[in-house]
């Protein structure tokens, strides 16, 4: 009885606290992918609550009914080996539940790994999002713009984020638009998102990456396509071009505010995809490989910035 | 001076200096105490050189409890730092070191020795054996674990603690981003302890398969022994992967290879895969023996046989197979695509089925029972609802598309704590209360015990339930601080209160041990719980040979049948008993491995070579030593038996 009361108390406390708050970010989706995920989450919470209640009820019943204090002193519990039918039910029902969840899970997997429905008519907006300790660099190759630590996106187009890292593994996450994906140094991963409505959202690196991890966040602003185009134009009028030297400076470990540039670093420092990917070996071109290594080491040491132009373009 | 600079703490704080002083004082106090009370000889003869599985078990448990408090102190510091937004109690570097050591200490140096300690104490008694198959190897296992644990624990006062998380993902853990020797400690200390665990795995597999009492077929083994057998099979398959991964990581850090580096063809993803190919089965190495403990405790205090013995065994075998097929769910977000994620999503959720079977079997064991809620039983009854919450959230995490939202958040942290604390820690506490009388000859206080159980259970709920919500609200794990506007404050404050509750609960257990040691009755007989399995059929304290004569096993509950149905367990006459001799070699090897590891961590190559040779020297000595053990004569056995109340 004590047990039930304590658990009930805990549930009530949590429920009271809950109702007093804003909706939880993940359950307040602002894009189709986040909505798929929020639906899965809410559905599974209900289903799992059902299981929890069944288990709690059975436990409470057993503890209530078969306590030693409720029985005769000379009562000897029987020897029961098990019953094939009872156990078949105990296996069968969970199998059905897992089968149902698997069905949903597989469908959702293909949904979140593709351009969301309703956005297929337009080419997705490709944004290269790369992390360095402890910043995010957003390159818009189509618009020829690069930003640091903030992201402007239009609402009418699907978004295709190409993720990679100039350091430890990070994870690109905008909870209200959709779940996260890793950004790694030796390959590019793709995350499909889209924003339904204009608004401002929190974005961050979710994967621990060292001392500056907690502050490794970025702001996301979704706006109408017209506003987005205006922003692009304005950037081209006002912002300075990004240079290789400038970019090397940005890569230095530390925190930066928001920054805007024209051009992208992809021109002189391509993303690790295709033939640039980290674990692709180019057999028969050992000299190039050597040169490549030197380049990397210099980057790591942050020395001899002047020399970089000699190595660029591979 | 230059030589000593490497041992300095790269990022010191007053708390660390205070710890240095405290460690120094405690060490002096221990040395002084042992000398003053003339206990060096006793310590050496009875404990440091022992090969007795019961004493090794107790030493494992003492280590585990010490490490519980070390890891617990880390936890309190973390929760205190996060209790309020923008708190300045710890800076980022200290917070990173603390959560890294919290994870490693709790999993590898608390939960593992707790489990292995009970395996050591209980398994030979449950199967009617006189010791494990390889008693000296068993001692070596313990001393390697202990050397590894101590080596890891000195990191924060010598050279700096690891700070790349307990998962130690590369390239973060590589020299470029983790410059202190901290991650060397991680690689080497876990390697040493892991070798010990691998030996334990081989030892207990052999023991359980070859040394059961006459008549005890596999399907008549007690459930804890079954769980231990399966856990040790998993150890033997999983730990070599860890050994290799750690060796590659060591090579990367100390010898300039590029297995996991992000340049020159290295693959950071390879580390993640190797780590979790070991790491996920590791979870089941912990949880299966815990399930075994619950099976023993629930059956004893429901006063009934375990319901569905065969399906219990089958579900554990299935879990052990599935445990090797789910590792990718630790990084659904690594970009392997919908097909791979779908496969691992299904295998992950499938584990819920055999686990569910076990929950239902425990519930049906209560059916028509005569339930007595003692402290061990209370832990088991609190385990079922709390673990169910942890378990179903695990199924939710298994839905890979949704996992993109849970991954790396407090939701995940809440899930695995709600699984590991009710699952493993409650089981270990239940076992501590349950086996305490067999180990020490008195019972722990029931009133204090039950109070502690309630405080710990409520503390667990308060500490971890809020994390489900803050995770869904976007709080990533491993953040040392957060802004006021994020709205995470209230959840983290509740968590902090819960963490304090847990601290009080564990303090109550320590007080209980002290209180019971002083006031508890010593006249408790050898079967204080009216239990059912073989470990309760021998005397308390258990004589070094465990059983004077071999029991004859006819059922799963031989001792119960002996007591209630008159099927005599012990029919033979006493004969002389063959026992292994004590040896100092395992302890010495532990010390050598400690210094070897220390040299390795600081890249001091000359001592490393010397101690490598010394370790091989010990192995050679052990190999050529001609020691066939000793016999305990019939008279001696009879004398011991009479002293303990007569032969059974």
From TrEMBL, chain A:
A GO CC term attached to the entry: plasma membrane
InterPro entries xref list: CcO_II, CcO_II-like_C, Cupredoxin, CuRO_UO_II, Cyt_c_oxidase_su2_TM_dom, Cyt_c_oxidase_su2_TM_sf, Cyt_o_ubiquinol_oxidase_su2, QoxA
Residues in Cytochrome oxidase subunit II transmembrane region profile domain copies: 18-116
Biased composition (Basic and acidic residues): 266-278, 302-314
Superkingdom as given in the UniProt entry: Bacteria
Subcellular localization(s) per the UniProt record: Cell membrane
The keyword Secreted appears for this protein: no
Catalytic activity from the UniProt record: 2 a quinol + O2 = 2 a quinone + 2 H2O
Membrane disposition: Multi-pass membrane protein
Region called Disordered, residue ranges: 261-314
Primary enzyme class: oxidoreductase
PANTHER family the record matches: CYTOCHROME BO(3) UBIQUINOL OXIDASE SUBUNIT 2 (PTHR22888:SF18), CYTOCHROME C OXIDASE, SUBUNIT II (PTHR22888)
Summary of the function given for this chain in its UniProt record: Catalyzes quinol oxidation with the concomitant reduction of oxygen to water. Subunit II transfers the electrons from a quinol to the binuclear center of the catalytic subunit I.
UniProt-recorded name of the protein: Quinol oxidase subunit 2
Taxonomic path: Bacteria, Bacillati, Bacillota, Bacilli, Bacillales
TrEMBL record, chain B:
Family to which the UniProt record says this protein belongs: Belongs to the heme-copper respiratory oxidase family.
Reaction catalysis annotation: 2 a quinol + O2 = 2 a quinone + 2 H2O; 4 Fe(II)-[cytochrome c] + O2 + 8 H(+)(in) = 4 Fe(III)-[cytochrome c] + 2 H2O + 4 H(+)(out)
This protein's pathway: Energy metabolism; oxidative phosphorylation
Residue spans crossing the bilayer: 15-37, 58-78, 98-125, 137-158, 185-205, 226-249, 269-291, 312-332, 338-357, 378-402, 414-436, 448-469, 489-514, 577-596
EC number: 1.10.3.-
Cofactor binding notes: Binds a copper B center. Heme A3.
Protein name: Quinol oxidase subunit 1
Organism: Cytobacillus horneckiae
Lineage of the organism: Bacteria, Bacillati, Bacillota, Bacilli, Bacillales
Domain Cytochrome oxidase subunit I profile, residue spans: 38-554
Subcellular location: Cell membrane
